[in-house]
Each structure stands twice: as structure tokens, then as C-alpha cells.
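Support reply, case 0932

Customer input (verbatim):
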Amino acid sequence: MAEKVKETLPKGTEDEFKSLLLAISDTKLLLGYHFGEWTFRTPSLESGIATCNFAQDELGHVRLFHGLLKNHSNETDATLIHERQAENYNSISCLNSSISSWLELITFSAVIDGGVTILLESMSDSSFRPLRERVEKILQEEKFHSDYTDAWVVALANDGNGSSEMVGDVFKKAVPVFASWLNKLNASNLIEAGVLKTSLEETLGNSFTKFEALIKKAGLDLPDPEEMASDDSSDFLQFPQEEIIYSLRGEKNEVFRV
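Our regenerated output:
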């Protein structure tokens, strides 16, 4: 018998739903910020166009999730962005400060955006219709993101200019912080209610499988992702830099906010 699709959140899932969507949208907001920041610093005009498009996509995904939060968790634009303090963000920590190179941006994106997309796939058959419909649109766009960043990772790892080791180093930084972020989320009630179809443990395993396939395709000599994830000695900031928060809030031009 097919599971009934609902228009409202099942009782008892509200807190987990809010925390999960905030963690995802915070991460996408920071990804969008960094893609936008790098639009005019890419190696070519074509990569600049792609990066600009990715920034627009990620901010569009944030808007979709914020809409859900405003409709089902009593959030507002003020609480979600304009008045929110850095310590209330739950973005993946490697995105909380400036990104120093195109190689770092691309490799972080392949891991972080790729892993978050695996998490979103567990919502594509959700019992909560508003979430399912939004995730369907997002996954269509993320397919291009994944194809593009993965191709760049392979190209950089094989450019003959010594970039392979640097790509590997970024993997070693990104995989543990993604795993740590996912492991801190709680979705037991969401899974029981069918809002998510895959446990977070299985999602992490599926993410490791994706990372391992990319590592092999790029010809990188790295430990398996599960082993990399065991090293949580990250020196990334716990919360986004204040200058990033300042930009995200739109404080410089808030006088024009309507």
C-alpha cells in the first residue's frame, strides 16, 4: 500500500525539520556566497559563467528552504538572515571563512555540495509533499553542479603541474568536516514519519561511496573516505566570519531594503 503524502509536517518532527533545513540552507548559503565571490576570479570566462550560475542556484535553493521554514516553523526573514548571529549558523565549517584558490573552491564544492545532494536524495520521495516538490527541482540543478565540479577535480588532479597533491589535501580537509556535520544532525523522528527515506548513517555511507568513486576517477592516492573522516582535527572556524555574515545580511545597503 502506497504511503500517504501529506501537506503538513507530521507531529513530533517540527524541531528536527527546522534544525535539518537550517543546517542545509546555511551550508548552501555559504556555498552561494563563495561561488559569487569567485565569479570574477576563475581561470576562464566560461568557468566564471558557471560559477555565477552556481551562486544563483544555491541562493535559489536557500530561498526554497527558507520558504518552507517560514511556512512550517514560524521563521521570518529577520530570524533567518537579517538579525541572525554567526554563532547560530550550522554551516559546514570549511565554508566559514575565505577560500584561497580555485582548486580549493572546486574540491570543497565536489565534496560538500556532493554530500549534501546525497542527503537531499533521501527527501526526494518524502511523505511531506512541500519538501518533496522543492527537492525535486533542486536535484535537477545539482546534477549539473556535480558533473561540472567532478570534471574539474579530475582535470586539476591530472594537470601535470603538481596540483594532484593539493587536491588530495583539500579532500582530507573536506571529508572529515562533512562527516562531522552530518553526524551531529538528528533525524530519527523524520525518518520514522517518512519525511526522510534514508537514515543519516546510510546517507554518510552513500556519500563515502561517491567520494571514493571521484578519488579513483581522479587517480588520487588517498585513504578511503571513512578513514579520512576519522581525522576530525580541523582548524576551520566553528561559525562564519563576521565579514561574511555582514555581506549575507545585506547590511551595507539595508537602507534600500523594501
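We compared this against your earlier run and they match. Two observations from our side: Residues 14-249 form a domain with the Ferritin fold (CATH 1.20.1260.10). The radius of gyration is 18 Å. Please reopen the case if you see a mismatch on your end.
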